Amino acid sequence: MKVSSLPLSESFRCRLERKSLPTLMLLAVVLAPLLVASLFWAFYRYHISSAAKGVTAAQSSASPSQQTAPIDERLSNAERAIMFSIAPLTSLSAMMTPVDPDPVASFRQLIALPPGTTREAPRIDPRRIRTIVDRGVVEYASAKTDGDRARGARLIQTAALVGYPPARDLLARNYPQSEAVRSVVPAKDVIRYALVPVMAAASEDSKQIFLALGQHFAVQGQLDVFATEILELVRGDSRPQLIHRVDTLVDLLARVPGACGAIARLVAGAGKAADQECSFSENLRKFIETTRSSAAEQEEDSKRRGLLMLSQLSGG
Known about the structure:
0% strand
């Protein structure tokens, strides 16, 4: 029996088509996204190329200086960077703030008040000063050693520095015979304590205190110190009745051996005769009138030191 070949080939072709259909579908699924991506990339490249051509055309229409400016600026920056990299360290002061050699002085200058203004003086309670003096007198009187007496004298000196007259009188009166007082009170302070009342309105008591102090410096061979501090204190005194006050001072100096000579050596125009006779009142008056006063500065310094001692007492 003979079978026809046509039906067999059609049957094979049908089976082949059924097997290749899934493969074609799979290829379509894979190739479709690639085709879309290729089209998108071509579109993007087209727009980028168009934008680049527009920029090139704009640049070609610009002036030559506008084209070269960015390049010149970059070159200039590069040159400066190279110069900075090879510059010595000493050139850094041009770019950095120099180190202040005296920061304390600079700070004081910074906080200083403008010229013509005055600081308000700190208020000192007189009752506190009186209490300090009383405490110092008690400690001094009840002390058994010079160290204990010196602590009492230091309390009195604190009050004297801030300007308490009774404390100044106590120290000036006891300075010649008390080692404890001399260990605490500098010579320039005690001479000021004794001289200021004499040059203001001399009483008999203030004269005796001044004479005893002058004789102490004469015995100790310190009349040059005594005379120097006197002239420093009376210079520039412009208060009334200067002639009378100078005569009073010279009369007291004449009663201290060697005091007139010490003053005459420091006052211009006073000769040996003036040294021996203490007749240099006129020269002393001219010295006072032609020199600048330093009394205010000395009192300010005194009060500053006294306030410091008061703060130390409060801290203790």
